[in-house]
Specification:
Elements: H1 2-8, H2 14-22, H3 27-53, H4 63-91, H5 99-124, H6 129-143, H7 147-160, H8 167-189, H9 198-214, H10 231-241, H11 247-276, H12 307-312, H13 314-327, H14 330-346, H15 351-377, H16 387-416, H17 438-445, H18 457-470, H19 489-493, H20 504-521, H21 535-549, H22 553-570, H23 579-590, H24 599-602, H25 607-615, E1 621-624, E2 636-639, H26 656-665, E3 670-673, H27 683-696, E4 700-703, E5 706-710, E6 724-728, E7 736-739, E8 761-762, H28 767-776, E9 779-783, E10 799-804, E11 808-813, E12 834-835
Parallel strand pairs: 1-2, 1-3, 6-9, 10-12
Antiparallel strand pairs: 3-5, 4-5, 6-7, 7-8, 9-11, 10-11
Helix pairs in contact: 4-5, 4-6, 4-11, 5-6, 5-7, 5-10, 5-11, 5-14, 9-10, 10-11, 11-13, 11-21, 13-14, 13-15, 14-15, 14-16, 15-20, 18-20, 20-21, 26-27
Length: 879
């Protein structure tokens, strides 16, 4: 037996020859071995899938809902990057840039090409599923001319980087690990639709939703905020148009697209920092981005708004400015103009970028022009950079910037007769929509006073300069108890510019950051707007960190504790506002294990809004009374907030019939409002709104905290003017009887003390005269402090409560009980009003009625109510 076994194992035996053939390095045996391994792995996969399928069916995995988000995000990224590289290398012939910087500029140009494609589709009515695929496919095909070569160059550049050794290796690994954790946290905090912020549910996403619903660009006459530049919303419109996703996935895709731009902000920091370090490669330097952790806190974190899209353009603008200022090359003039124009397409806070670019280019141009004039006066040799070259290059940059931003201004000119609507209405006097006070409202009532610059003249400029040194220590507003979370290393490292080598470029970046923050301090000091330029101080900080480290051991003795302190102090910042977001993301991830396999179980987001869509016809035009977070209602929405739109103007309206006609004149078919919450801007609007809704509307449906009312088919009877309202303890008014149109004062436009509207009849002291005033009133507004001020009013059953707000209650005269209301109740018989729209049998005038408001305040739904903690409007009117 042993002899036969030995014979079988000899080198010439068949078994040995088979083994040698299988282990040979020749092509055929290697192919056979590979095929065997592949078959083995596939068989293992099949067995594994069959085994787990019994527990959780494969078709119900959450993966199949997330994969389209990753796929469309990658498609957008590759198509934009590819075509941008083609424009950069073949149109501008800029082929000498470092690969990371080249990719950054390519992404900026490609994004603009993509957005122009969406604008084109919106102009001709092509925002449809087929175009949602055709646009990126065409751009990707064109980008294949350069994209593979760029990836090869990037790989070569990364391979050329020297892997740190010793202590530096550990620093590199730690920085990379921290950055990776930061990205994971950002992704989890941005995963579910509940991460979408207030402004994004108000207009950023609804703009894209409505463009995709209509298939084209449409005007928004009921909200001035939607007339501003919205590059992000154009990309969201593409996301709403692509095929193969449910609506919740489209909301999640918007967040994924925002994360793509945040990732490119990180790339921008790395590219700009490398330029500031004169091309020096420092592995892991990109992680300095997370030393500024404010993007994790509420109102600055990824939420579907536009600030991070604007922030993406900060690094390209500064890089293009610095390269342009070297020799005023016309190619960089085009690049600078395109970057500035792209920023303008995002939002008007692009003035920060304009300030940064001017801070770099203008002094350099002035120096060159001055030197040229000096040489000309001395009759010296002609300078290499002539004044003509500087001037022409500047005109090219300006022209390209305006041309890049032109789609927005052309769209506004077509729809609003004003390229910068809603601004400059006194210049563009044919702006539409507008009314006699719309320009005043825009100038005085639209801005939020806490964000406006403080002081005047020199005082204001000193404050703006001080903001450069204090912005990271003293938040101007906060949802996290004013705890500094911006990151302060930039400010604290500025003194090192005096001693580090190679200080010129980092100092220029710091100067540019100063210019941007100075413009911010002179315009609108909302802290989240700093996300639009923060990439510049972050890159400057990274460069200062490297140069300070290179000063040696003594410098490191101070640098290391400073950086460690920043990391330790801000290590919990992601959890100030993030726990709820993380829990929602983990709940969604757990849904597969918990057998919540249907979309209805997984995605319980904004269900009431989607139900309202189903309950209204496609051509409905819904008036949303002081209710803005309308994402999910796929119908045309008209807001009535007086300072933020000019289509609905309550001031001239004198009665419910006139209000009905006003609504009908602008095509209102339905009314949506949260009863007893978010009151109208004025008492006039509150009274007449409730008169129309409670007295004349009959078709009403409740959707959670929202009431949907169908406009009455027949108008109310002609108004008996004046419609008189008794105001007692009402905020901003003296006690007495007013015609309703006198109660038109906006909270932000209060007249000087003593100059407000006067009552037609002041509130008397005599009880008989008081009863006469009550009898003359069609409605009564009672402030919350009326009892404390001795104005406790005892209304009889002729009045019923229409709405109870935080600061006042609106009572309407019950027309059905008018006959009984002629006799006033006894002075000591308190009556509590019945619901305004609940029919009840008339009671004797002296019998107290059971107290119950018309609409009992419901428990608010987080997704639908305007929670002040989620509203960036610090002066939002509240009754």
């Amino acid at each position: 037996m042993l002899a036969r076994l030995r014979a079988a194992l000899t080198p010439d035996s068949p078994l040995a020859r088979l083994r040698a053939a299988l282990t040979s390095d020749s092509p055929r045996p290697r192919l056979l071995r590979g095929a065997f391994a592949a078959v083995a792995c596939i068989a293992g996969l099949a067995y594994y899938a069959f085994a787990v399928h019994k527990h959780i069916p494969v078709q119900h995995w959450l993966l199949w809902r997330l994969a389209p988000l990753w796929g469309y995000s990658l498609l957008f990224l590759l198509s934009s990057l590819g075509i941008g590289l083609v424009l950069l290398r073949r149109a501008l012939r800029l082929a000498h840039l470092p690969p990371v910087e080249e990719g950054l500029f390519g992404m900026a140009l490609g994004t603009l090409a993509f957005v122009f494609g969406v604008y084109l589709a919106g102009a001709v009515g092509w925002i449809r599923p087929w175009y949602g695929l055709a646009l990126p496919a065409a751009l990707f095909a064109g980008g294949l001319l350069e994209l593979p070569r760029w990836l090869s160059r990037l790989k070569g550049d990364l391979d050329a980087s020297i892997t740190p050794r010793g202590a530096m290796r550990w620093l590199w690994l730690a920085a990379t690990g921290v950055g990776a954790v930061g990205f994971v946290l950002l992704y989890l905090m941005s995963l579910t639709p509940e991460s979408i912020g207030f402004d994004a549910t108000w207009y950023h996403l609804p703009i894209g939703q409505d463009y995709a619903r209509a298939g084209r660009i449409v005007p928004f006459y009921g909200d001035v905020n939607r007339a501003f530049p919205h590059l992000a919303s154009m990309l969201y419109a593409w996301g709403f148009s692509v095929p193969g996703m449910i609506v919740e996935q489209r909301w999640m895709l918007a967040l994924h697209l925002e994360l793509v731009f945040i990732a490119w902000k990180v790339v921008g920091v790395a590219a700009l920092a490398r330029y500031l370090l004169q091309g020096e490669r420092v592995p892991g330097l990109w992680a300095a981005f997370f030393l500024f952790p404010s993007l994790f806190v509420h109102d600055q974190n990824p939420s579907g708004s536009a600030d991070h899209f604007l922030g993406f353009f900060a690094a390209p603008v500064l890089l293009a400015s610095m390269r342009f200022a070297e020799r005023f090359d016309r190619r960089y003039a085009v690049l600078l103009g395109a970057s500035l124009g792209g920023a303008m397409l995002v939002k008007y806070q692009a003035v920060y970028h304009l300030g940064m670019a001017a801070a770099i280019v203008v002094p350099r141009a002035a120096y060159l022009l001055g030197r040229a004039a000096f040489r000309a006066a001395k009759k010296r040799r002609r300078p290499l950079l002539s004044p003509r070259r500087v001037l022409v290059a500047g005109l090219i940059a300006s022209g390209v910037a305006l041309g890049t931003a032109a789609p927005h201004f052309v769209k506004n000119t077509i729809y609003y007769n004003n390229p910068v609507y809603p601004m400059a209405q006194r210049v563009f006097t044919r702006s539409y929509p507008q009314h006699p006070r719309s320009a005043e409202f825009m100038e005085k009532a639209y801005p939020n006073k806490p964000y406006l610059p403080k002081g005047k003249g020199l005082e204001r400029q000193l404050i703006a300069v001080g903001n450069f040194f204090s912005f990271s220590f003293s938040p101007h507003y906060s949802f996290t108890r004013y705890v500094p979370s911006m990151g302060s290393l930039f400010t604290l490292l500025l003194p090192t510019l005096l001693v580090i080598r190679g200080r010129r470029r980092p100092a220029l970046a710091a100067w540019a950051a100063f210019a941007g923050i100075w413009v911010w301090g002179n315009t609108y000091t909302a802290d989240r707007y700093l996300q639009g330029l923060l990439a510049v101080p972050i890159a400057a900080t990274a460069a200062m960190l490297v140069r300070t480290w290179q000063l040696g051991t003594v410098a490191r003795l101070g640098l290391v504790p400073l950086v460690v302190f920043q990391i330790v102090w801000s290590g919990d910042v992601p959890f100030y506002s993030g726990p709820d977001r993380l829990e929602r993301a983990l709940s969604l991830i757990r849904s597969t294990y918990e057998k919540k396999w249907s979309d209805a179980q997984r995605f319980k987001f904004r269900e009431n809004h989607r139900a309202i869509t189903r309950a209204t016809p496609p051509d409905a035009r819904i008036l949303a009374r002081n209710y803005r977070t309308t994402l999910g209602i796929e119908r045309e929405i008209i807001f009535d907030i007086q300072a933020w739109q000019s289509l609905i103007f309550y001031e001239p309206v004198r009665g419910p019939r006139e209000l009905y006609e006003h609504y009908r004149s602008v095509g209102i078919t339905h009314i949506l409002y949260p009863p007893n919450q978010r009151p109208p801007d004025t008492l006039q609007a509150a009274v007449l709104f409730n008169e129309l809704v409670h007295r004349h509307a009959t078709e009403k449906r409740r959707f959670g905290s929202l009431q949907l009312v169908t406009m009455p088919k027949e108008p109310p009877p002609p108004d008996e003017l004046p419609y008189e309202v008794l105001a007692l303890g009402a905020p901003g008014y003296e006690d007495g009887l007013y015609p309703v149109e006198a109660l038109h004062i906006l909270p932000k436009l209060q007249p000087p003390k003593g100059q407000g509207p006067k009552p037609a009849q002041a509130w008397p002291r005599d009880s008989g005269a008081q009863a006469a005033l009550v009898e003359a009133a069609e409605a009564v507004v009672v402030g919350k402090d009326a009892a404390r001020r001795g104005r406790a009013l005892k209304l009889d059953s002729a009045f019923s409560a229409a709405e109870r707000f935080k600061n006042y209650t609106v009572y309407l005269r019950d027309k059905r009980s008018a006959a009984q209301a002629e006799a006033p109740p006894p002075a000591d018989a308190p009556s509590a009003p019945e619901p305004a729209d609940a029919p009840s049998a008339p009671e004797p005038a002296d019998a107290p009625s059971a107290p119950e408001p018309a609409d009992a305040p419901p428990a608010p739904e987080p997704a639908d109510t305007a929670d002040p903690s989620q509203d960036d409007d610090m002066e939002d009117p509240g009754g």
